[in-house]
Amino acid sequence: MTAALVAEGVTKSYGDVTALDGVSLSVDAGEVFGLVGPNGAGKTTLVRALTGTTAVTGEVSLLGREPTAVDPSRIGLLPQSFSPAGRLTPRELLAQYAGRYDAGRDPAAVLADVGIEGGPAEQWYEELSGGQKRRVCVAIALVNDPDVLFLDEPTTGIDPAGRRALWELLEELAAGGTTVFLTSHSMAEVERLSDRVGFLTEGDLVTVGSPRDLVETHGGASRLLVETDATPAGLTETLSHAVSTRGDRLVVEDVGPREIGDVVDALDAAGLAFESLTWKQPDLEDVYLELTGDAFEGSAAVTAASPPATAGEDQ
Ligand SMILES: Nc1ncnc2c1ncn2[C@@H]1O[C@H](COP(=O)(O)OP(=O)(O)OP(=O)(O)O)[C@@H](O)[C@H]1O
């Protein structure tokens, strides 16, 4: 598989702040790579490094060349902060951006792809809603039908239906061979779209893997979340699972689907009144919380009970 993107030992500092600390990664042509990490982790800086829009130390190769030497018509970039001219309509903006390329796409078709049609396509950009503006920005990044598409938090502000429509559009592009480098704070988005996900914390790419492998390795076991105002005193005698608190919820750890009834019985036996129960299989959000060290923030172990009687079942 040919690499579309390669970074080796990429480092970037702003004064005393090390935004990137020797990041190395390779993204295959046609791959969708999701980059996640806390605010200030260095995600935008890495996008800028990979697109040649900020100077870094280390090596960066985009489509086999230095980023600044790549034909711009092959690259699509949606920066995190992007404000096109406010007093142009989406249709005019798209025509303007398409005009920069020999073979730009039909502006109306690209706008339709991101759900901007009819009235909003003819309104000044500055008069659009936040989500509509973001859709137009995505369209601008797509207008040259790029081989490699960088999307820095593309769906921020876009409503749930629009977000799903955009996911489908990105899936179509990926199926057609477009390489996508995506940053997002939505773990659902990253989990759904990405072939591989990289976790960046404090400028350090700590882990890279497929969502499935990451969840298996770092996601922990299935758990039961119990919404309750009551204190969990007394559970120790009745429950053979570890219990912790997370915010205003109790977390009963390592509960397989066939154990849920037993746990509920144990909660009843302990006289614990609860508002709701949610059984949760581990997902990328759990991986995120684990890898960024936030998994147990605000939580405390309540019991360290003996292992569940049916440990290993249904995990
Ligand atoms: N132009 C700049 N001048 C000074 N410091 C900067 C600049 N750009 C970024 N930084 C710093 O570099 C670090 C990484 O910032 P970056 O924007 O890459 O993080 P991020 O992971 O994209 O964050 P977020 O999730 O909030 O968008 C931060 O500490 C930030 O303050």
From TrEMBL:
Organism for this UniProt entry: Halobellus clavatus
PROSITE patterns associated with the record: ABC_TRANSPORTER_1 (PS00211), ABC_TRANSPORTER_2 (PS50893)
Record-given protein name: ABC-2 type transport system ATP-binding protein
All residue ranges annotated as the ABC transporter domain in the record: 5-227
GO molecular function: ATP binding; ATP hydrolysis activity
Keyword Nucleotide-binding set for record: yes
Superkingdom classification of source: Archaea
UniProt keyword Lyase, yes or no: no
Pfam families: ABC_tran (PF00005)
Alphabetical UniProt keywords: ATP-binding, Nucleotide-binding, Transport
InterPro entries: AAA+_ATPase, ABC_transporter-like_ATP-bd, ABC_transporter-like_CS, ABC_transporter_ATP-binding, P-loop_NTPase
Gene3D superfamilies in the cross-refs: P-loop containing nucleotide triphosphate hydrolases
Similarity comment: Belongs to the ABC transporter superfamily.
